[in-house]
Design goal:
single chain; 153 residues; alpha+beta; 6-stranded antiparallel beta sheet; 32% strand
């Protein structure tokens, strides 16, 4: 046990030093996120198809809803880069057609699966059991260019 005069000096030096170290060191969550990022999968190369089977079709789950379809598959070994409104394709006899647009995408990293919900394009028959696909990392779309501007008078 320290004598009382040494104890007060020790406490006067120890606690401010401890507080400074706590401020300078990264929080545990940031360290965990950094470790998780280091262990993450590589981003899918552009043009990587992800084929999945349509497993659910519905007309309208909620009032005001539109028809949509849901599919799911696993086996992902790369990090997807899929966004809402990305196209959903079907390829038949080497002809690829856009049949819908993504409205929901859920990635289960643990199981390596992806669940995709999409709204159909008009006049395309989509049935449960159909095999469709999305691009796991589509090329960036070009921003819309503004039309010709009219001079102000």
């Amino acid at each position: 046990m320290l004598p009382s005069r040494h104890r007060s000096v020790f406490l006067a030096v120890f606690f401010p030093t401890l507080a400074l170290l706590a401020l300078l060191s990264p929080p545990l969550t940031r360290t965990v996120r950094a470790a998780d990022a280091e262990a993450s999968l590589a981003l899918a190369p552009q043009g990587t198809p992800f084929f999945f089977e349509v497993i659910d079709s519905h007309d309208a789950k909620y009032p005001g809803d539109t028809p949509s379809h849901v599919g799911k598959d696993g086996g992902l070994t790369v990090r997807p880069n899929v966004a809402l409104r990305d196209p959903v394709y079907r390829t038949v006899n080497k002809t690829t057609t856009v049949i819908g647009k993504v409205t929901l995408v859920q990635w289960d990293r643990v199981s390596g699966s992806l669940t995709v919900e999409f709204d159909p394009e008009p006049l395309h028959r989509i049935a449960v059991g159909d095999e469709v696909w999305i691009d796991l990392n589509p090329a960036p779309s070009k921003p819309a260019t503004p039309g010709p501007s009219t001079p102000s008078h």
